[in-house]
């Protein structure tokens, strides 16, 4: 329905949550463990770390919004020395899989946590669910087309701006 397949961990989590509370709790636990293991070897998008640093250096608030669990994101930030540059991490709600993106819930939580309104924010996302969630929350969305097929997909979803590299955003921020 949303471009996801049955092997997508988010689909598995959603299905487990729909089947039973016990299934949801166990699936969430297993997914958090797997995500935390995976960040040990995860490779960032080219220029992503620079974007986080430059954004922070320019005095802007940086928050991470993800359908992944917050623990894995914090682990990644710690491993790469980025924790000090990120004001907040908003991961999926471990008790309610229905609030993952494309639902705007995570976007609203992030705005509340950072004290920013939709017109004071911009969201960079690389999926249809990112674009839909950002737009539903009234936040301008930069579509990061990190794969060739995503350019048209993110444009069709309604991204306000499209980039194929994080460096484009960093360069724009670094310009006085």
What does this 3D model show about the protein?
With 176 residues, this protein is mainly α. Helices cover 48% and strands 9% of the residues. The protein has eight helices and five strands. The protein has helices at residues 9-19, 21-38, 48-57, 70-79, 105-114, 128-136, 150-157, 166-174; strands spanning 63-65, 88-90, 123-125, 141-144, 161-163. A three-stranded parallel sheet has the order 3-4-5, sandwiched between helices. Helix 7 (150-157) links the parallel strand 4 and strand 5 (161-163). The longest helix has 18 residues, at 21-38. The protein is globular. The model has no long low-confidence stretch (mean pLDDT 91).
Key descriptive features of the protein:
48% helix, globular, mainly alpha, 176 residues, 8 helices
Strand content: 5-15%
Mean pLDDT: 91
H-E order: HHHEHEHEHEHEH
This entry's quaternary arrangement is single chain
**How many strands, which pairing sense, and closed or not: the largest β-sheet?**
3 strands, parallel
CA-based shape: globular
Number of helices: 8
What strand line-up does the widest sheet have? 3-4-5
Gyration radius (Cα, Å) is 16 Å
Structural class by sheet pairing and helices:
mainly alpha
| Poorly predicted parts | none
> How many runs of DSSP E, i.e. beta strands?
5
Instruction: Determine the fraction of residues in helical runs and give it as a percent range.
Output: 40-55%
Could you tell me how far the N terminus lies from the C terminus, measured between alpha carbons in angstroms?
43 Å
């Amino acid at each position: 329905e949303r471009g996801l397949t049955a092997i997508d961990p988010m689909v598995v989590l959603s299905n487990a949550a729909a089947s039973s509370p016990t299934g949801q709790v166990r699936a969430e636990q297993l997914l958090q463990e797997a995500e935390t293991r995976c960040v040990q070897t995860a490779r960032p998008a080219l220029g992503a770390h620079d974007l986080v640093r430059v954004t922070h250096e320019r005095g802007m608030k940086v928050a991470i919004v993800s359908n992944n669990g917050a623990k894995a994101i914090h682990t990644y930030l710690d491993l790469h020395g980025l924790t000090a540059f990120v004001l907040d991490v908003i991961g999926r709600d471990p008790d309610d899989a229905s609030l993952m993106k494309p639902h705007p819930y995570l976007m609203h939580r992030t705005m509340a946590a950072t004290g920013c309104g939709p017109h004071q924010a911009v969201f960079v996302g690389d999926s249809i669910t990112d674009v839909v969630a950002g737009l539903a929350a009234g936040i301008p969305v930069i579509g990061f087309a990190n794969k060739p097929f995503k350019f048209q997909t993110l444009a069709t979803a309604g991204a306000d701006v499209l980039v194929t590299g994080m460096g484009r955003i960093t360069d724009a921020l670094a310009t006085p």
